[in-house]
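TICKET #2291
ISSUE: user wants both folds in one file
ATTACHMENT 1:
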Amino acid sequence: MEPGTFQGEIGRYHWESTPWWPPEQRPADDAPNVMLVVLDDVGFAQLGCYGSDIETPVLDGLAAQGLQYTNFHTTALCSPTRACLLTGRNHHSNGMGRIIDLATGFPGYDATIPAANGFLPEMLVPEGYAAWAVGKWHLTPEEECHLAASRKRWPLGRGFERWYGFFGGETHQFAPALWHDNHQTTPPATYEEGYHLTEDLAERAMECVTDLRAVDADKPFFLYFATGACHSPHQAPAEWIDRYRGAFDAGWDVWREQTFERQLETGVIPAGTQLSPRPDWVPAWDDLSERARRVYARYMEAFAGFLSHTDHQIGRVLAHLERTSDLENTLVVVVSDNGASSEGGPTGSLNDARAWNVVPRTVEEADERLEEIGGPTIHNNYPWGWTVAGNTPFKRWKREVHEGGVADPLIVHWPRGIAARGGVRNQYVHAIDVAPTLLEAAGIDAPEEIDGVAQRPIEGASFLATFDDQEAPPPRNRQYYEMLGCRAMYDDGWKAVVYHPLQADEPGLDTDAWELYDVTSDPSECVDLAETHPDKLRELIDLWWSEAEKYQVLPLDNRAFSEFVIDRPRLPDRGRYVYYPGSAMVPEPVAVNVKNRSHSITADIEVASGPVPPEGVLLVEGTVLGGWSFHLLDGRLCYVHNVSGYTEHRIEAPVELSPGNHTLGFRFERTADFSGSGDAPARRGRACGRRPGGFDPEPLFDHRRRPDLWLRHGVPAVRRLRRAVPLHRDAATGRGGGRR
């Protein structure tokens, strides 16, 4: 009998008939609530319970009253790890071999998670769970993150019943680009009114629980709580950053050594572990200038304040679960999606978008703007030295598959379901093992079919047995890794690994030198055994190729900037774009592309009579962190081109607008190509030209381009603006978004 088939009786009259209602689907009475907390870019050593001196009392408390895993692994990058967590399948099996922004036209890399790989909410909701996603998503193909797109790969299209958060890998923490369910929304307050995204996300998570409990006191829920922290920009309320004034003045070398000692003392790393050497591309702290030390310490203060503030907001959600009597039977799982990030570069970053445009990131500028770091006008990220320290005791970092990129925190807390308090677990666990563990805890089998689509087998394995048994076997003894050409193969304590530089032609992907480690005795990968155990190395390399074929890893490709070198399907590029007042923000991938192209902007407006000159934005793409704005200021037509927050090019018409109807315009004539070829086609992207192996070093806006403003029947003119104009905050990511 088909599910839902009427099982009563129907006669001619109601007295001859028997009504029937299908029973409400409910999980077992003891099924737990589940709260999966996903931190962003938090390295192995950056939580207090993993050796840090950064204050994370809430997360430390969860570990002290639950379990702390010391051998948990991810994919080395955010979208891929999140796909693993939510489906139980490997990242290439999900088509998420990279982040959504760097998709390519191959099955393992197309950023299109197949319907055959069901998400956790698609498995839990039919069994009687509520399911909500709050925070970062980054799992929908970039070209589908707009209001004209299909919603089938948005959170509500993959089983979640409510969503509040942001699509991309990052967003401004004081003025985020927010989405609510299947539409755009704006933050409920402003920076000036005390708004911060993490606080907002905590409020929304609590709201979901409150709304459920107002109607159903017993229904279990799945809360996917994915903060933007601690991905750049490292922005936090000033009072949280100020707590760390002077805390990092001793520098990353001392911090790393002290953290390493705490890790040994607490058993986070096994006795005998070596501290991997500081790489030669990271300078010794004592060799830095006084100015550099001051700037680099401030960058780290901002990160620490951001992390502590996030810890506090997680605590607010947990306190609310205690008020609703849910905490006792809530299985809380806390992970980070990859190791600490190196995207701040060697000197740190005031604006990560500058790297795309080859704009300088200097210590001198950062020192001049020291007090802005962590605030709304800066997209800050710390320098490499703090990245290495954040991954203590491991090598390398995010995007790479040495342990610094893939070994991450995992904390499990479940008062009703775990008897151990403060237990440390050393079993080898991977991100794909989280989903099957949560399903087993809920007493739910992975379905063979979801909405008529046959399901692929889950590739992870449950580690639920380790909750009660410290000696339980690990869920797996084998796991492959690949990220942007970096590769590794773990097999029963042995690990073969190779680092390959992004975009580099030498060495070739087919000639890289592999390393070999016994990570049971050498978890920090300090003793390369490749020469002494060549047979074992060859065995693991062959095994990696076998796994690569099995899980859609091929073809290997280390070209990170795929949107410049690999054609991707996009909406047809029109010669004319019309944006109407009152419509929503248009994300950059589907907005008009004016980069490296001659173009003009026109706006038809009506100026009302009055004592105050007209002001306001007519069209804007980007933010204070970079982009352009076409607007009125003090009654005059203006255009500002903001090159990644580094320099601004401004022009202003000489005529103050009179009341009445006007057609206003801006014209840009390209007189040479950015790359110097003169006739190369313009590409959509965050930078405008390439040379083999890198980007053309010229700025986006240069002397070879000739812009002007015009008023219909007026005289073109160019002069400096009298004062700066802040760009619209609605599209608050550094990469920008068109505003209609």
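ATTACHMENT 2:
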Amino acid sequence: MSMEEIKTEIENLRKKLNLHSYEYYVLNSPSMSDDEYDNLYRKLKKLEEKYPEYISSDSPTQRVGDKLSNGFNEVIHKERLYSLDNTYSEEEIKAFDSKVKKDLSKNDIEYFCELKIDGLSISLEYENGILKTASTRGDGFRGEDVTSNVRTIKSIPLKLRSPLTIEIRGEVFLPKSEFLMINDERDEEGLNPFANPRNAAAGTLRQLDPKEVRKRNLDAFFYQIVNQNNYDLHSQEESINFLKKIGMKTEPNSEKVNGVNEVIEFWKKWANEKNQLNYAIDGTVIKINDFSYQLELGYTIKSPRWAIAFKFPAEQKETLLKNAVFQVGRLGTITPVADLEPVRIAGTTVKRAVMHNFDYIKEKDLRIGDTVLIEKAGEIIPQIVKSIKEKRTGDEKIIIQPDECPICKGKVGKEKPEDIAIKCLNPVCPAKIEKRIILFVSRGAMDIEGLGEKFIQRMCRAELLKSPVDLYKITENDLYSLGSGIAEKTVKNYMKEIEKSKNMPLHNLLTGLGIPGVGSKTARDIAIHFKTLQQVEAATINDLTDITGIGSEIAKNIVDFFSNPQVLKEIEEIKKFVNTEEFFEESGTALKGKKIVVTGTLDNYTRTEIKNIIQENGGEMSSSVSKNTDYILAGKNPGSKYNKGLSLGVKILSEKDFEKIINNDL
């Protein structure tokens, strides 16, 4: 091939791959299989490696940017990013409509209604169709340059479908399904869960390592073109259609309406249906559709006069804070949890709410016996909004930070002065041991069936277990010594499961060790890369960051973990009993080549567990529904994916149906 032919081949491959990304992430209707995409991607990558002079910033191989070594640079916005006035009131929306009509001397106004995404504002600048800069809102005049991180968001094109120089604004968000999966993994890794999808999205976009951002599967919708008159656009409706045309993803439920009554109907509809979406919305945005009217009305100091956010009232309930319970995590973190009088809110009964830390309790002045106002943050996690101080009787009790561990009575404190969390400092605290062993035996780790939390607590408190390795030293007589309730069948099953676990592949062992920040997926990637536990122990930070998806923070956690003398001593013991090499195999082929989308809350599995089972049976867990989806596994309260699947004729599975397929009974 001549150099010109090589250049043409590279350009054609880029076009095909970028078209697939547009079809897959924006249109949700791919025309190419994942295998085809992967083959083309590998071919392009090899050509670019061989001919680096032809690499361009819009290539799909360039989605993961360079690490940001010194934080974020400041970006001065060419045009200010305004915030919106907002209201929760139908009367105020009618007043807004009346003022608009008066100022414009019009009797009827055409509005464009959009869903208000609960995410993070973003501004993108394209030059000749190529993404050059992505920045946050900041104070509206200046923001932070987050281009390297935004390049990892697959729904944002690196190259537009037209060679335009243009600035586009929108909202970055974290889908609810990803939020739940991330919190499952954080819980598995001993980290505090995110409070809501918006906080998770904001924290993710400000990560200094784009590899970490890529793992979170952020998404985005776009709704504004700066200086839209330059593109012969005359209305918000035309602007949205133009964004679609050039390859930008827009929220699909926007609607042009006539008059304020239809605005209110749109708002009421989505106040009732918001939970069906896979992204959090906290209201609707009402805009005058005609750009000439927008120009005539102009802006106040803070916001446009031609738009308003019509927000949904958060569902809030009063209940009694009966008690504060202190939980001790696997890493010793002491988390205060509010024990509440059960109350029904946003479709579920809430009995507990995490109070995060003792600074949070002090800031909100929460006391045992308080009447408190609660809501579901992001419609997902119960959260205390405030205490109702006027309802205090004087019998309320201040929640005091414990001066000893609630489990082992050992010393508590902060590991570092800058830490917020209070931790149990006793390395052999039974709570830590129990949590570590519960993780070690879990399905994604050593998969020792029949060892529930209560049984593990019983063995720990009888001092049969002081570390995970003790699981392999227990004899039948030890189990019988626990006393009543230990039947011969229980003992025999324990010994059988323990024996079976000795032959688990390395990635299961790495998951079970509880390395901070390392969940089942990262453990699998590490095991496949290094092959043996000995190689993992010897790995440097640079060795680890060579693995896609592992950033410097997690790499440091891993190196620190395997540098701890106490850990190394324990691992040397474990090596005597279990396999320490990777030989990942699919345990079945029931889902070979199948794409499965999971929606709703499952009764028997966490998101991490169901993902592992799908992978182990040859399938792939997908985040979006398309004509290439084979099954939708639907739990309780399934979202819009369920409805889309029905419209596309995708087969819907219950958990029982899914288990039958896995067991080859269907």
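RESOLUTION: both attachments delivered.
EXTRA DETAIL ON ATTACHMENT 2: The two ends are 51 Å apart (CA to CA).
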